[in-house]
């Protein structure tokens, strides 16, 4: 069994700058096969796992990763939830994760890290990576 590539990443989704990714390869494969064709190259280029050594190693980080894994494991069965008890457990896992994420992100200089790790011409405008278009050519500008 191969080890999951998990961790904090930039641009896992086009409208979220930084988030925890449970399975990098699965998401990359999804982008390659399911996203609109014209968006795929840009999404693949900007989606990057942040090297562990660049992240502050605090107890809040450990809590964030632990709750992130629990949330994503609960999410796997999201569409098969048939009872309120399981649904409540899922919602709780999500809330705990969101709180741990918010706390840990206060320890990270997200803008500086983004500038250091991401493409120098990243088109992220605070809301989307598609601010200048969807093709890879937007990275060539300027
Ligand atoms: Zn970026």
List keywords for this structure.
single chain; 142 residues; mainly alpha; 2 domains; 3-stranded antiparallel sheet; 5 helices; binds zinc ion
Question: Mind sketching the topology for me?
Answer:
Elements: E1 7-13, E2 16-21, H1 24-34, H2 37-46, E3 48-49, H3 59-76, H4 84-105, H5 110-117
Antiparallel strand pairs: 1-2, 1-3
The structure holds zinc ion.
Zinc ion is lined by residues 10-11, 46, 114, 118, 122, 124.
Kindly describe this structure.
It is a single chain. The chain is mainly alpha-helical and 142 residues long. It folds into two domains: 1-55 and 109-142, no CATH class; 56-107. It has five helices and three strands; from the N terminus they run E-E-H-H-E-H-H-H. The chain has a three-stranded antiparallel beta sheet. The longest helix is centred in the middle third of the chain and has 22 residues, at 84-105. The radius of gyration is 16 Å and the shape is globular. The N and C termini lie far apart (44 Å). The structure holds zinc ion. Residues 10-11, 46, 114, 118, 122, 124 line the site of zinc ion (ZN).
Cα-atom radius of gyration: 16 Å
**Overall 3D shape:** globular
Question: How many beta-strand segments?
Answer: 3
Number of contiguous helices: 5
In the sheet with the most strands, the strands line up as: 2-1-3
Structural class category? mainly alpha
The distinct bound ligands, ions and cofactors come out as: zinc ion
Distance between the termini: 44 Å
Multimerization status: single chain
- What's the order of the H and E elements? EEHHEHHH
Helix content: 40-55%
Unreliable stretches (pLDDT < 50, length at least 5) are none
Strand content: 5-15%
What is the total number of structural domains? 2
Mean pLDDT: 91
**Main sheet summary:** 3 strands, antiparallel
């Amino acid at each position: 069994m191969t080890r999951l590539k998990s961790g904090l990443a930039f641009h896992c989704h086009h409208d979220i700058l930084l988030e925890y990714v449970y399975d990098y390869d699965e998401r990359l494969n999804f982008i390659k096969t399911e996203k609109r064709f014209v968006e795929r190259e840009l999404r693949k280029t900007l989606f990057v796992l942040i090297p562990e050594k660049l992240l502050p190693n605090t107890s809040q980080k450990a809590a964030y990763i632990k709750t992130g894994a629990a949330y994503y494991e609960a999410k796997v069965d999201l569409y098969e939830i048939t009872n309120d008890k399981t649904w409540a457990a899922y919602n709780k896992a999500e809330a705990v994760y969101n709180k741990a994420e918010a706390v840990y992100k206060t320890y990270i200089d997200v803008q500086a890290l983004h500038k250091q790790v991401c493409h120098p011409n990243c088109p992220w405008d605070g809301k989307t990576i598609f601010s200048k278009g969807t093709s890879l050519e937007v990275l060539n500008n300027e």
